[in-house]
From TrEMBL:
The keyword Amino-acid biosynthesis applies. GO terms for biological process: isoleucine biosynthetic process; L-valine biosynthetic process. One of its GO terms (cellular component) is cytosol. The gene is ilvH. This is Acetolactate synthase small subunit. It catalyses: 2 pyruvate + H(+) = (2S)-2-acetolactate + CO2. PANTHER family: ACETOLACTATE SYNTHASE SMALL SUBUNIT, ACETOLACTATE SYNTHASE SMALL SUBUNIT 1, CHLOROPLASTIC. The keyword Transferase applies. It comes from Thalassobacter stenotrophicus. Dimer of large and small chains.
Amino acid sequence: MSALRIKKGSTSHSAYNLRPTFSDVQERHTLALLVENEAGVLARVIGLFSGRGYNIESLTVAEVDHDNALSRITVVTVGTPQVIEQIKAQLGRIVPVRDVHDLTVEGPAVERELALIKVSGAGDKRIEALRLAEIFRANVVDSTLESFVFEMTGASDKIDAFCELMRPLGLQEIARTGVAAMSRGSA
């Protein structure tokens, strides 16, 4: 009987060091879908996610081509590379879905989100909220003696950071549109 000898420290022939094709690391992906603008399409897309236990971090939908009755759905989701591939494949099989793009892997993309943030406070907290709003380029769209409503557009992490700074100053309410995204360049 012959035994296979492997030099100590060598991993090239060990069955214990085989690496899987996909990672178990969770990744955030932005998917852009072009769909037929008809009743039930959004429910089918959402049903695909909920039926398989996939989470949706952000979802935006709007008609983009009235003449051809097409809408664009932008979905931000998190999963392992295997799960993301499954999601894209399953979305592509839904009949009213015309096109599926993973903007995260297809090249540079622009992502923006709009948020309305209500902050109440008086005195120094009110002054500090206005100072921070100026730094973050948030616009005051409503003001009373007790509160402000700020409008902010930008990347999701910028909005998150602004909201965290507003918490101790009197953050009352947040309304967010979700991510709108588009690939950069001519293609």
